[in-house]
């Protein structure tokens, strides 16, 4: 499990392609890999991956083709930066909201607004996932736990303070870029339960 509090930015240094999978070699800040062991879980742009090898502060992760297809990891290139978070431990403070590291879908950045001292990002999400997006609700974008601002159809925005821009890759994102989305599990459960009970359908017209 993860908390959605991004612990830093790491850089992809190499991608090793093999039949059925790709190995991502990622350079982490040295202080962030202390105590890492083979088999440890790390969220890379919100995607839970397993450490398969370590060389100093370079960690290796194997990503299956299905993972590359369903997430934005398949579009990474050497030199790209990613958000990372090591798996939560018992007793850790939950500053965001609990995440599984299993990506549901991707969204596209459709607008970037830069008023003074903050940034507003607008995203477009596939219509079938918009049922789980509510104003003031939680959502994880590239592994960061964020609060949804406005919602307009299948578009929504988030407002980012300078510290979030500094500590994550959001400070350098561009319009048209795709991001990983994990919807809030509690919201998904409530919406799906109501749908099974028929509350997602308009009331029938009585004659």
TrEMBL record:
Residues 1-97, 98-194 form the Lumazine-binding domain. Lumazine-binding repeats lie at residues 1-97, 98-194. Keywords: Repeat, Riboflavin biosynthesis, Transferase. Its EC number is 2.5.1.9. It catalyses: 2 6,7-dimethyl-8-(1-D-ribityl)lumazine + H(+) = 5-amino-6-(D-ribitylamino)uracil + riboflavin. GO terms for molecular function: riboflavin synthase activity. Pfam families: Lum_binding. Pathway: Cofactor biosynthesis; riboflavin biosynthesis; riboflavin from 2-hydroxy-3-oxobutyl phosphate and 5-amino-6-(D-ribitylamino)uracil: step 2/2. Transmembrane segments: none annotated. One of its GO terms (biological process) is riboflavin biosynthetic process. Catalyzes the dismutation of two molecules of 6,7-dimethyl-8-ribityllumazine, resulting in the formation of riboflavin and 5-amino-6-(D-ribitylamino)uracil. This is Riboflavin synthase.
């Amino acid at each position: 499990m993860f908390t959605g509090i991004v612990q830093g930015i790491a850089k992809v240094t190499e991608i090793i392609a093999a039949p059925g999978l790709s190995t991502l070699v990622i350079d982490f800040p040295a202080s962030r890999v202390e105590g890492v062991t083979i088999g440890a879980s790390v969220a890379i742009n919100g995607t839970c991956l397993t450490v398969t090898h370590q060389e100093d502060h370079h960690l290796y992760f194997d990503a299956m083709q299905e993972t590359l297809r369903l997430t934005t990891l398949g579009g990474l290139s050497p030199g790209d930066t990613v958000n990372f978070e090591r798996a939560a431990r018992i007793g850790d403070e939950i500053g965001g909201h609990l995440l599984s590291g299993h990506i549901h879908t991707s969204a596209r950045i459709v607008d970037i607004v830069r008023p003074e001292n903050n940034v507003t990002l607008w995203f477009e999400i596939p219509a079938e996932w918009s049922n789980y997006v509510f104003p003031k609700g939680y959502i994880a974008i590239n592994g960061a736990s964020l609060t949804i601002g406005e919602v307009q159809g299948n578009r929504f925005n988030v407002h980012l303070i300078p510290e979030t821009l500094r500590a994550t890759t959001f400070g350098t994102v561009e319009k048209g870029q795709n991001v990983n989305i994990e919807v809030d599990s509690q919201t998904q459960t409530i919406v799906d339960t109501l749908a099974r009970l028929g509350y997602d359908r308009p009331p029938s017209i009585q004659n």
